[in-house]
C-alpha cells in the first residue's frame, strides 16, 4: 500500500468527522430536528440492528470532538452542543451530566478566538435555563475564564463572554422583585411576570436571591464590563449594558458595585444613541440601578439624564419607550423631591403623551409613574391633573384587556383623587367612578376570580373607589352610583351624602328631585351599621312626611287610605 493510500485513510476519517459535526450543527439549528437528535439512542438501522454510535447518544459523540486536533472540528462541535443546549433544559442538563463543561472551560484559555466564542455560547446556552444549571457553570470554574475573555482583543469574544455572564447573573428567586410595586396595586404586574417567566427546571436546592450575580461580581467582571460599554462596537455595548442591568437588578449592594465602577456616567451618555437596541439596554440598566434606593436614584439623576431621557418616550421603538418610562418611574417613586424634579423637567406631560400614543404593556410603567407622583403630595397630584393625566388613565381602564394594566390604572386614579375634595372632583367629573364600579362588579362576579390577576383588579378598583369616594363631595357624580353599588361600596357613597346634605339646601332639593332620596330609602342596611347611621343622617335632613313619602310601600299605604276613605257629602 502506497503512502498516498495510507494518508487517504486519515483524510477520509477527517472528512467524516468534519461532515458529522457540520451536519449535526446544521440539524440542531432547526427546532423540528431537535427531538430526533435528543432521542438518537432509540434510532434503529434499517436492518433492525441498533446503531452503536446512536446508542451512545449525540452528546457523547460530540464531546471527544471538542478535543479534536482539527480546530474547525472543535469549533463546530462546540457550536452544535450550544445549539442543542439552547433548545431546552433537558439537553442543557445532558451537557452538564456529560462532563462537557470542564473540557470547555479548560480550552477557553488555550484555543483561538473562534473556539472561545463557540465555548462561551455553550456556557450561555446551558446557564440560561435555570439557577442550578447556572450554578453548575460556576462550580466548574467558568466565571474566571469568561472574565479573562472580557480582556480578549477580539470584540466577538468579549461579546460572547459578556452574554454568558449575563445569563448567569440574571437568575433570581421567584419573589425577589415584588417590592418594586406599591401595595395598592398588589404587585399584579410583577406577579404576572413571575407566573409567565417561572418554569423550566424545578430547583433541587435553594439559592440566595443574588448568589449567582454575586459570584459574577466576585470574579471581577464589573470593571471589565464597564470598559466593554466604552468599546466602539455596538453589539458589544448592547450585551455589556444588558449584563450590567442583570447584575444590578438583584440588590442595592450589587447595584452599588456597578455604580462604583463608574457605569452610570457612561450609560447616561448613550441614552440618545441612534441604535434602538442599545438604548433599550442602557435605559434598563439605569432603571435597575435607580430602583433600589434614594441615593442610587439621585446618582442616576445627577448624571443629567433629564430632560434627555424624555426624548426616549417619543422613540419609534416600543421597548425604548417602555424602558424610558420605567426609568422615570423608578426615580419618581422614591421621594416627593425627585418627583418634583421630574415635573419641573416636563416629565409628567411627556409620560401622559406617551400613554396616549401607545397601547398594551408599553403603557404600564407610565401609568404607575403617574400614580407614584400623585401619591406623594397634593401639589404633585394636582400637577398630574393640570397636565390632563386623568383622561388617558381612564382610557386605559376601558381600552386595555390585561388585568394588571387595568389594576395599575385604577390604582393611579385612586392616588390622584385621594388627597382633597378638589382632587376627587377632578377624577369624578371625568366619569371615572362608574367605570371603576363597573370594572369592580364585573371582575368580582367573573368566573376567573380564582386567577390572581383578577383578584388584584378587584383589590385595586375597590381601593381606588374608596380613596376617591372618601374625598368626593361632588354629588352629581356620586348619585348614579347609588343604583348599582354593592353594600361595601355603598357605605362610602351614602357617607359622602350624609356629610354634604346637612349643610347645602340646594343639594338637598336636588337630591329629592333626582330620585336620590327615594333610592336611599330602598337601601337595606343592617340595624346599627355604619351605613344605617349614614341613612339616618340623610333622613334627618328632611321633614318626616317627605321621608315617609319616598319610603318603599308608602304608595300602597296611600292607595289603601284612598280605598278606605269615606267621602264627606
Brief overview:
With 569 residues, the protein is an all-alpha fold.
The radius of gyration is: 33 Å
- CA-based shape: elongated
Classify the secondary structure makeup into a structural class. Answer: mainly alpha
Strand content of the residues, in percent?
A: under 5%
Count of helix runs: 36
Which residues sit in consecutive blocks of at least 5 with pLDDT less than 50?
41-56, 173-209
Query: What portion of residues is helical?
Result: 55-70%
Mean pLDDT equals: 82
Q: Span from first to last CA?
A: 147 Å
Can you put this structure into words, describing what you see?
The chain starts with a helix and ends in a 5-residue tail after the last helix. It contains 36 helices and no strands. It is mainly α. Helix 7 (100-108) packs parallel to helix 10 (142-149), helix 18 packs parallel to helix 20 and helix 23 (364-376) runs parallel beside helix 26 (403-417). Residues 41-56 and 173-209 have low confidence and may be disordered. 69% of the residues lie in helices and 0% in strands. Pfam families: Arm. This is Sperm-associated antigen 6. GO terms for molecular function: microtubule binding.
Amino acid at each position: 500500500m502506497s503512502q498516498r493510500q495510507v494518508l487517504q485513510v486519515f483524510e477520509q476519517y477527517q472528512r467524516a468527522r468534519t461532515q458529522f459535526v457540520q451536519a449535526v450543527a446544521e440539524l440542531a439549528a432547526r427546532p423540528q430536528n431537535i427531538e430526533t437528535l435528543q432521542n438518537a439512542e432509540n434510532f434503529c438501522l434499517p436492518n433492525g440492528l441498533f446503531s452503536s454510535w446512536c446508542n451512545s447518544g449525540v452528546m457523547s459523540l460530540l464531546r471527544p470532538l471538542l478535543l479534536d486536533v482539527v480546530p474547525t472540528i472543535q469549533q463546530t462541535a462546540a457550536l452544535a452542543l450550544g445549539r442543542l443546549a439552547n433548545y431546552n433544559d433537558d439537553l442543557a442538563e445532558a451537557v452538564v451530566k456529560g462532563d462537557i463543561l470542564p473540557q470547555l472551560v479548560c480550552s477557553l484559555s488555550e484555543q483561538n478566538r473562534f473556539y472561545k466564542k463557540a465555548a462561551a455560547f455553550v456556557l450561555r446556552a446551558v446557564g440560561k435555563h435555570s439557577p442550578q444549571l447556572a450554578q453548575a457553570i460556576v462550580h466548574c470554574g467558568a466565571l474566571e475564564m469568561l472574565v479573562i475573555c472580557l480582556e480578549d482583543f477580539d470584540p466577538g469574544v468579549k461579546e460572547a463572554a459578556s452574554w454568558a455572564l449575563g445569563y448567569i447573573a440574571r437568575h433570581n428567586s421567584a419573589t425577589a422583585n415584588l417590592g418594586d410595586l406599591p401595595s395598592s396595586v398588589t404587585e399584579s404586574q410583577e406577579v404576572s411576570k413571575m407566573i409567565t417567566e417561572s418554569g423550566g427546571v424545578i430547583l433541587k436546592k435553594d439559592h440566595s436571591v443574588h448568589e449567582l450575580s454575586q459570584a459574577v461580581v466576585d470574579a471581577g467582571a464589573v470593571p471589565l464590563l464597564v470598559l466593554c460599554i466604552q468599546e466602539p462596537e455596538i453589539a458589544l455595548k448592547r450585551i455589556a449594558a444588558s449584563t450590567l442591568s442583570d447584575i444590578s437588578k438583584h440588590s442595592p449592594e450589587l447595584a452599588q458595585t456597578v455604580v462604583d465602577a463608574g457605569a452610570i456616567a457612561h450609560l447616561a451618555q448613550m441614552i440618545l444613541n441612534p441604535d434602538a437596541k442599545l438604548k433599550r439596554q442602557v435605559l434598563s440598566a439605569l432603571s435597575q440601578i435607580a430602583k433600589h434606593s434614594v441615593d442610587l436614584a439621585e446618582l442616576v439623576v445627577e448624571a443629567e439624564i433629564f430632560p434627555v431621557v424624555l426624548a426616549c418616550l417619543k422613540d419609534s421603538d416600543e421597548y425604548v419607550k417602555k424602558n424610558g418610562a420605567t426609568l422615570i418611574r423608578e426615580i419618581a417613586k422614591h421621594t416627593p423631591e425627585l418627583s418634583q424634579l421630574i415635573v419641573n423637567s416636563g416629565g409628567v406631560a411627556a409620560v401622559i403623551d406617551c400613554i396616549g400614543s401607545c397601547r398594551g404593556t408599553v403603557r404600564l410603567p407610565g401609568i404607575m409613574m403617574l400614580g407614584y407622583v400623585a401619591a406623594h403630595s397634593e401639589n404633585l397630584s394636582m400637577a398630574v391633573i393640570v397636565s390632563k393625566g386623568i383622561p388617558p388613565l381612564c382610557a386605559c381602564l376601558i381600552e386595555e384587556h390585561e388585568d394588571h394594566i387595568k389594576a395599575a390604572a385604577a390604582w393611579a386614579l385612586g392616588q390622584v383623587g385621594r388627597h382633597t375634595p378638589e382632587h376627587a372632583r377632578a377624577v369624578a367629573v371625568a366619569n371615572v367612578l362608574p367605570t371603576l364600579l363597573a370594572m369592580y362588579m364585573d371582575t368580582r362576579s367573573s368566573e376567573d376570580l380564582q386567577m390572581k390577576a383578577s383578584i388584584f383588579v378587584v383589590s385595586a378598583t375597590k381601593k381606588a373607589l374608596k380613596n376617591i369616594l372618601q374625598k368626593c363631595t361632588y354629588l352629581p357624580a356620586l348619585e348614579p352610583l347609588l343604583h348599582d353599588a354593592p353594600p361595601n361600596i355603598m357605605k362610602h357613597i351614602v357617607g359622602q351624602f350624609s356629610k354634604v346634605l346637612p349643610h347645602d339646601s340646594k343639594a338637598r332639593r336636588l337630591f329629592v328631585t333626582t330620585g336620590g332620596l327615594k333610592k336611599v330609602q330602598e337601601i337595606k342596611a343592617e340595624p346599627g351599621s355604619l351605613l344605617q347611621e349614614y341613612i339616618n343622617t340623610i333622613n334627618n335632613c328632611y321633614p318626616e312626611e317627605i321621608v315617609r313619602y319616598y319610603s318603599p310601600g308608602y304608595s300602597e299605604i296611600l292607595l289603601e287610605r284612598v280605598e278606605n276613605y269615606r267621602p264627606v257629602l
